[in-house]
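Posted in: Structural Biology > Protein-Ligand Complexes

Title: Requesting predicted complex, guanosine-5'-diphosphate in pocket

I'd be grateful if someone could produce the 3D structure tokens for the following input. Sequence and ligand are given below.
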Amino acid sequence: MSLQSEIGKRRTFAIISHPDAGKTTITEKLILLGQLIQVAGTVKGKKHDKAATSDWMSLEKERGISVTSSVMQFPYNGRVVNLLDTPGHEDFSEDTYRTLTAVDSALMVIDGAKGVEDRTIKLMNVCRLRDTPIIGFVNKMDRDIRDPIELLDEIEEVLGIAAAPINWPMGMGREFKGVYNLYTDTLHVFQPGKGSVIADDIRINGLESDEAKALLDDEYDNFLDEIELVRGASHEFDLEAYLAGQQTPVFFGTALSNFGVREMLDDFVQWAPAPLDREVEQASEARIIPAKDETFSGFVFKIQANMDPKHRDRIAFMRVCSGEYSKGMKMRHVRIGKDVKIADAVSFLAGDRELVEQAVSGDIIGLHNHGTIQIGDTFTEGDEFKFTGIPHFAPELFRRIRLADPLKSKQLQKGLQQLSEEGSTQVFMPQKNSDLIVGAVGMLQFDVVVYRLKDEYKVDAIYEPVNIHTARWVECDDPKAFEEFKRKCADNLAIDGGGHLTYLAPTRVNLALAEERHPEVRFRATREH
Ligand code: GDP
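-- Reply #1 --
Done. Output follows.
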């Protein structure tokens, strides 16, 4: 099989949704359809599950949130699907943001009873930055949901994207009879109560058929009217508009009853884009790396420490953007200018880690990280370009972290450093004292850090308030001016976990003054490699 056609089979996507809309449930069903696991229900939860990626998931359970994030690969209808999970809680939105830079399309799950919710709006805005194509799935048809026409209107108005229904629900809640495909003129009959197995696929051809009349019974005439209305009032599906991120095809179903997911997946693997070409920067010039280029390249969008209690290590998740990885190959780690031989990259078949022999453009592989890899790093087969658009955001909340047992300070520093590599918290070491400052974008991350320090590094730590309002990464092209700045502002400077010089401002006014006094210095709120 040629490399080109292997790449052409890849469909790499993430699910965007508001918490509780059914992302986890639909993920289970998708994997089930990929037939890698025979019984659904192993993606999230139970402690000894193969797919329970870390023991800090117990924190996740206590909080009822999903803080883990992983990658699942499964074959489907001649395609290879890569599903990148994103944390649902908004304190982890940075992580989600970066994950969305690593996909080619997204699946938007909407709770039919609730409609378009906050978090979906935010994620949709992130997708819009890159015109990511989005397929919509209105979930929970087995419940009394809102009027489907109203839901489509809401998607169009609130999300600002045209909506094209692909199928239409026949009733809802207890009266839910299935979905009618507007394009194939087929009725898919609902099979209730078969959550953990794939229900028989019962189809009726033709809305005009006697079977259709029998199924819809009293509701038949009403349904005909409704379909006429829907056809007249909604957008027709347009593949080009979908691929341009301007239109979302919408499916109705119920993930819990495993109904409608297959219909969606069937079309998804046909329509969703194969790996897209990506922009890089080389010698300050922008250029495009075609996804089907034969030479290997990729970038790291996520780092996770101690993913698996059995393998206490750190994994850097790399999106392969061109060519192929083969076991034992030499890669250039562009930022540090070194060639490294990689023989033990892992893949994520249905959440299970396996050594990967080969991976192609569109796939995600995991590299073992011993501290040299950072989020945003580019790897190539010798080329000197780097992928752009993978940001770090300056934290907005700060705490001084202190040890209950002072003898463990080495462990604490190591733990903080490793956790900050994941990118959702930052650690800062001020130059004027030996404090350790933790910076985060959301409050919950502070709890996660203390929990994980104890759980993974056996360190008891506590927080104290600290007078920092914001942090800025600083750079300057003029060495003399930079030295002057460093001398004058020594009390405010710190080194972050990645070794970057940072200005810690106690107040907004202080930052404004520093910027005014040192116009040659750039104060950055985001950092890109
Ligand atoms: P997530 O937070 O988006 O991952 O949502 P989950 O998949 O954990 O689902 C949230 C809740 O909704 C769970 O109790 C699910 O069992 C339930 N749920 C998911 N899909 C459906 C569905 O199609 N119908 C019904 N009635 N409940 C569902």
